[in-house]
Amino acid sequence: MTPPSSPRSAPSSRMAQIVERNIRALLGRHHQEERHAGWQDRLADRITGFTGSMRFVTLHGVLFGSGSW
Questions:
Q1: What is the pLDDT of residue 66?
Q2: Does position 68 have pLDDT exceeding 90, yes or no?
Q3: What is the pLDDT at residue 3?
Q4: Does residue 4 form part of some domain?
Q5: In a domain, 3, yes or no
Q6: Where on the phi/psi map is residue 60: left (φ > 0), alpha (ψ -120 to 50), or beta?
Q7: 56: Cβ–Cβ under 8 A, 6 or more apart, which residues?
Q8: Per residue in 6-61, pLDDT tens?
Q9: In the chain, N or C terminus with fewer CB closer than 10 Å?
Q10: What is the CA radius of gyration of the chain?
């Protein structure tokens, strides 16, 4: 005897398909925007990437936390 199918399995599967489709669409748009970004946007992304890194936090802590300034 097979167990009865869960009433939630079909909508859950459909929801997963929708989420996957949306993620693919967002990634596609992100890649397209990266390809068409100007030099100012690329520079801003590099600066933001650095200032949000632990390397920046460490450098900032050494320079401003040493008390020699």
A1: 81
A2: no
A3: 58
A4: no
A5: no
A6: alpha
A7: 50
A8: 555 567 899 999 999 999 999 999 999 999 999 999 999 999 999 999 999 999 99
A9: N
A10: 24
In this structure, is residue 24 part of a structural domain?
yes
pLDDT for 5 equals: 57
**What pLDDT score was predicted for residue 69?**
53
**Is 18 inside any structural domain?**
yes
Query: Is the Cα dihedral 9, 14, 19, 20 positive or negative?
Result: positive
The four Cα atoms 31, 43, 41, 54 give a dihedral, to 10 degrees, of 70
Q: Are 63 and 69 in contact (CB under 8 A)?
A: yes
Locate 49 and state its tokens: 């990437």
Number of domains in the chain: 1
Name the residue range of residue 39's domain: 9-65
